[in-house]
What we know:
The protein has helices at 3-12, 32-48, 98-105, 130-135, 153-167, 175-188, 206-220, 236-249, 263-268, 288-304; strands at 56-67, 73-83, 87-92, 111-120, 123-124, 138-141, 148-152, 199-200, 224-228, 255-259, 273-278, 281-286. The chain has one domain (3-304): P-loop containing nucleotide triphosphate hydrolases (Rossmann fold, 3-Layer(aba) Sandwich), CATH 3.40.50. The protein has a 6-stranded mixed β-sheet, sandwiched between helices. The protein has a 4-stranded antiparallel β-sheet with strand order 2-1-4-5. 42% of the residues are buried. By secondary structure, it is of the alpha/beta class.
Amino acid sequence: MDAMACFQAASAYSTRLAVRPLPLQSSKRSYSLCIRNVAATATQQESSSRDVSPKILLQVQGLTASVADSNTEILKGIDLTIREGEVHAIMGKNGSGKSTFSKVLVGHPDYQVTGGAAIFKGENLLEKEPEERSHAGLFMSFQSPVEVPGVSNMDFLRMSCNARRAAQGQPELGPLEFYGFLSPKLAALNMAPTFLDRNVNEGFSGGEKKRNEILQLAVLEADLAILDEIDSGLDVDALRDVANAVNGLRKSSNAILMITHYQRLLDYIKPDFVHIMEQGQIVKTGDASLAKQLEAGGYQAIRGGD
Ligand SMILES: Nc1ncnc2c1ncn2[C@@H]1O[C@H](COP(=O)(O)OP(=O)(O)OP(=O)(O)O)[C@@H](O)[C@H]1O
């Protein structure tokens, strides 16, 4: 298994396989002063608005990051606050940094955080290893989910589920119990039970891989799901199934961060906030109407409205 496959397995699936992900350059850096400030701000906002606003799940402030190998700066100061119950969509031209942002959040080893802070559920996210981020309740569905040869989907899902349960101090689910837990989730995604016997993503079509990603999300019951272009490559029925399944997972205590190019996904999963990313920064934030404006007039119309 290569480093990318290993990373995805460790982070998205919340468990360690035989091979560890590469060490994180980013997580070892010290941002203690900055982190303290952001954490203090989050706490102040929390206490001053405790009775009116839902809790902050993720607070990102001034986040900068570069490609680890080349030091090329990609993220140039991202600010974003996500509260429980919210759906955020990030849109932006190709190459604006959307996927890099989500990968940096889950601790991808290709990137090095060079400044700023990210606080998740009150803790410094950037200090955590990928699997710790996953155990803490962060999930990312990848644009290109990896295949994991030799491991059945069922075993993988159960391992992932039990790894998260163990991290939360909950007892493991045995095979029968787990099947009972899994069956309704499989049905919600219109996935045949035969997918459980196949190796993870091996030979799956693009759409089947995307459904499988959402099945993993359902199993992990993440607090913050980062969905990177889950609509790409889906036929109309699959898009509806996937979106319905995601909507079925929404609770007042969790949140979704979606990356998409198209309004069609947002017709199903309605965003509270739409952010436009450009050259590694969020340059505009609005409500769902911003995506409609974008669909109608392109990026020029959006920037022209500044
Ligand atoms: N590992 C890497 N090595 C070199 N360049 C990278 C790497 N990762 C990202 N980049 C560059 O960073 C920029 C942002 O890429 P990113 O994938 O985050 O964009 P995006 O907004 O998600 O694009 P798209 O909409 O096409 O998926 C691009 O110019 C890309 O080539």
